[in-house]
Amino acid sequence: MTVLVPTMGALHKGHQALIKRARELDKEVVVSIFVNPLQFTETEDIEKYPRTPEADIQIATLAGATQVWFPTYEEIYPSQPIQISAGQVGERYEGASRPGHFAGVLTVVNRLFEIVKPNKAVFGEKDFQQLWLISNHFKKVKIVAVPTVREFDGLALSSRNVRLTQADRAAALIISKALKEPSRMKEILATEPAFKLDYAEIIDEKTFSPASATTQNKRAIIAGWVNGVRLLDNAVVGTNS
Ligand code: PAF
Fold it and tell me: Domains in the chain and their CATH numbers?
C-alpha cells in the first residue's frame, strides 16, 4: 500500500510534516515533485517558482520518503489533458483571483493518482480550499489532512516565503494575528499598510460559502499580497466538531 505526497518541490518543514504523517500511515511513501503548468494563471510566472531538486531529495528522504519522483511533463500529460472542472467552489476565493487554478490542480492530482495508484494521499491544511476540493472530488483515495506548520511567530510556512524581505516578513505576520480574532479580521489586516487584501472571510467548512448563524464548523480564510508575494492562511473559528 502506497501513500502519495504530491508537491511542487521547494520543500520546507511544512512538507516534512506531510511526509512524516504519510510514513505513519504506511511503509511506502512516494513524494512527487512536479511544477504543474496547468495550475498557473497567465499572469503568474512559472519560471519564478523556486526549484531546489537536490535539497528536496535530502529533505524528503530524511522525513521518511521511500521514493522521490520527478515526473516529466510528458509522463504526466502524454496528450493534451482534458481538465477536470472544480465546479462553483473552484471559482470562489482563490479561484476568483486565479481563474483555472483549481481545474489545473484537480487535473494533475488525478494524473498522479492514476500513475502512482496510492491508497492514501496527504495534503496540508494551509491550502484549505485546495484540500476541500480534492477531498470532495476524489473518493477512492483516502485524503489525509495535516495542520499548517508555522514559524515561531505564527507565519505559516510556504515556498513563497523565500521571496519575502525581512520587512515584508514582518508585515506578513498581520495575517496570523488577524486569524486569532476572526470577528475583527478585516480591521486588523487594514492596520498593516504593506498588506494588500484579496479576501478575508469566515466560511462554512461544509459548503465553502460564507458562514451563517447556523453554521457548525467555521473557518477563517485570508489571502493577500505583501510586496507582490501572494500569501494565504486559515484557521478554525471556535471549536469544530
Ligand atoms: O499544493 C501543491 O503543492 C500543489 O497544488 C499540488 C497539490 C502538488 C498539485 O500540483
Answer: 2-146 (3.40.50.620), 159-236 (3.30.1300.10)
